[in-house]
Amino acid sequence: MSDNPFRIFVVDDDNLQRMIVTDHLQGHDYRIHEFGGGAECLAAMDLQPNLILLDIEMPGQSGLETCRALRAEGYDEVQVVFVSAHDDLETLMAAFEAGGNDFIPKNAAKDVLLRKVEIAIEAEEQKHQLQQQLSYAQKTAFTAMSSLGETGLVLQFLRSSFQCLNLRALGDLLIETMDQFGLHVLVKLSDAGEEHFFRSDTTCTELEKSILGYAAKLGRISQTGDRLAMNYPNITLLATGLDTEDPELIGRLRDHLATIAEGVGVRIDAMAREQERLRQANARMAGIKELVDLIAEIETHQASNHSQLEKLIELHRLQMEEAFVFLALTDSQELQLHGIVDELVTQVEALFVKDNLLALRLSGIVDKQQQLLKSE
Hints:
- This is Response regulator.
- By secondary structure, the protein is an alpha/beta fold.
- The chain is about 65% helix and about 15% strand.
């Protein structure tokens, strides 16, 4: 209280009454000002009183009128304790309706007056504490809302990064996200010796590439003034122009950028694995295609061989029948030779049947593999 003494206005048209009240208040850390009427009190409000002990019955402007004028002019924080010789219900209701905070009978004992002042002091301190708590709560709520919005940007970036299939697309998404954070950044993404550079509004200059090369030699997270550098596997990020007067914001951004940078590194590793799996799948598909082509060629060649073999067998049968005429064979000999030829034809035809069944199976496999190749 000594650094900011409690300021009290004593307003009463009775000089003796003012002197008594002032005497009761002596010996405490109060700064007291006396006024003989409501107009004088209103004219001195630039002194910023904490408490006004206001007599109700005064000539000219009454205490009730004075209080109403105070409230109308916006002095809602100052406490008004009415002083009156009347304490009936009508007077108390009038004091309440005028905007008073408390009431004390005129000529009240010293301890009663001091207790009323103590209550006023306690009420002001409680109000001040509540205002501080409200301010802190509002600031906390604003910070939470800001953090929630920033966290949403982080989550959106991580979700969208899964759709990026190369460094260029991932870098463009990262720059877009940094723009939403209101940050100016330089970024280097790398993978297996390949490097891509990005910046917020245009392409990186050679000097900026050199700066990123220097930043890559710093620790995982390094901050100097308004610059924040981050190094994670496959990524170096340098943010500049941070608001150094808002350390809480910088702290949140540091956490968010760390999450994003780590997510970028993980995504680049995942893309490398996806590319390797794609390369292996393409190699397997190429091998399958080669095998399918070979099977199809074998199938065609086999069908041609079957056709030629059938023609040869039929030609051989005709030649043997013509030879029988010139060999002068007996009927039994001709029958025996015909039997041998027929047996050979039967065996060959049985082989043809087996080959045809195998050919049908191969043809079905070829058709399935060709359909798979077309779908790829």
